[in-house]
Amino acid sequence: MVPRVKTAGFRAIEFKRAYEQVDRHPQGSFLTRMSCYLTSPAVAEEVEAVVAAERPDVAVIDAMFPAALAQAHGFGAPTAVFVHTFVHRQLDMWRGMIARLDGMRRQAGFDGLPDLDSLWGPRDLTVSTSLAEFDAVPHPGWEDVRHAGPVLEDERFAVPTPLPWLESDETPLVLVSFSTGFEQRNVEKVQRALDALADLPVHAVATTGGIVAPNEVATPPNAVVLSYAAHDPIMRRAALVMTHGGHGTAMRAHARRSDGRHTGARGRPTVRRSRHPGIRRRSRAAERCGHGRNAAAAREVLMNRAYRVEAQRRAKPLANRQGAKVAAHAVETLIDAQSRARRAAV
Fold first, then answer.
1. Which of 21, 57, 118, 335: CA 20 to 30 A from 187?
2. Identical fold, 2-149+323-345 and 173-318
3. What's the whole-number average pLDDT of the chain?
4. Are 127 and 78 in contact (CB under 8 A)?
């Protein structure tokens, strides 16, 4: 994350002790390293040291960072928890994930952490980077969640990349984009998607977010594989997006940007490939079956106009939504409130 933050023009402080206690955590799970850097006492101590040194005016904490959330009451500053997908629709899932991370921490021999309701509930602000229209009915006690809308600005780290096909080429373009979290690195999943599209009359662009190197996969003649690329220019040409179902990619497939603003609904249909990286296929026959399902799904969506019509219908709530500005304003409001309170105290 540090190079990506610096490329965006901000100072970045790296957590040096993120994996210091990883050997104590349960091994053999794709969550092993994640549970360490999100929950371990070493990381909690480092968070405390950073806050003491920096004395922030406000603390914005990721919803999946228990090591920081558990200490937020002592930061001496307003705190906001950012949920990078739905809240109400997935609250039970979030509770289960935090409980699972806590269980791995306990297996490492450390004290337990508070549950999700105790980690998120006391925060001054809870922001969801989704839309209320896409979320479920609020759970009791969670009515104050601020739905800012998806944050879809392309990072400076991901630059527009020329594609080998002319803009005038009417061959359908398929964007393949799976998770950029290293814990979900899955070379086979990328390869299967490329193989499924190899025999279709399409162009394919696969972006891997740097967790799979382009030379790790066999790229068919009708495809290119890129570590990083700005998605918006590709989305403008895409007829279909093949994704793991992540919130950011799904929202970007629907929202259209123009001159840096979300001015309409893009409405690109998606094919979701969400198989967990920890699950391995048992046979070549099963692998061919999966390959066939990918190809059949892509062909069905490309040939049936009803999918695009439905995607455009579902995309309408995203028109003119600027999630980054709404979220930033919500955080700045916390800072203003703290400033007013300090002046009143004086």
1. 21
2. yes
3. 86
4. no
Q: Which residue has the tokens 């005038």?
A: 168
Strand residue runs (E) in 236-332: 238-243, 255-258, 261-265, 270-272
Predicted TM-score (pTM) of this structure: 0.80
In CATH, which superfamily holds the domain spanning 173-318?
Answer: Glycogen Phosphorylase B; (3.40.50.2000)
For residue 222, what are the CA distances in angstroms to 51, 112, 171, 201? 50, 51, 10, 8
The highest-level CATH class for domain 2-149+323-345 is alpha beta
pLDDT tens digits, residue range 48-58?
999 999 999 99
* Strand boundaries in the chain, DSSP class E: 59-62, 79-83, 125-128, 146-147, 173-177, 203-207, 223-226, 238-243, 255-258, 261-265, 270-272
pLDDT tens per residue, range 213-260: 899 999 999 999 998 888 888 888 889 999 877 787 778 787 755 444
Domain ranges of the chain: 2-149+323-345, 173-318
